[in-house]
Amino acid sequence: MTRKSIEERLAQLDAQRQTLKARLGKQERARDTRRKVLLGALVLHRLGEDNREFDKTLREWLQRELPGFLARP
Q1: Whole-structure pTM value
Q2: Residue 48 burial (CB < 10 Å; 0-12/13-18/19+)?
Q3: CA distance 54 to 7
Q4: In this structure, how many other beta carbons lie within 10 angstroms of the beta carbon of residue 55?
Q5: 11 confidence band (pLDDT: 50, 70, 90)
Q6: What span, in angstroms and rounded, lies between the C-alpha atoms of 29 and 40?
């Protein structure tokens, strides 16, 4: 059985590192998407409630903030 050279072992470790970094990135994107979905659900829920004052305040805030936030129409 032949031992791997130091260069080969380093290359293998670099490949493993890249694989783990890709997996971590995927997990972070999934968590970010989950947060966005939950926040959107909360906003839609609050807009559907029968609390006129909160509804009005939230709608005004969204109308004021959303256009500057969106990059595309």
Answers
A1: 0.64
A2: exposed
A3: 63
A4: 14
A5: very high
A6: 16
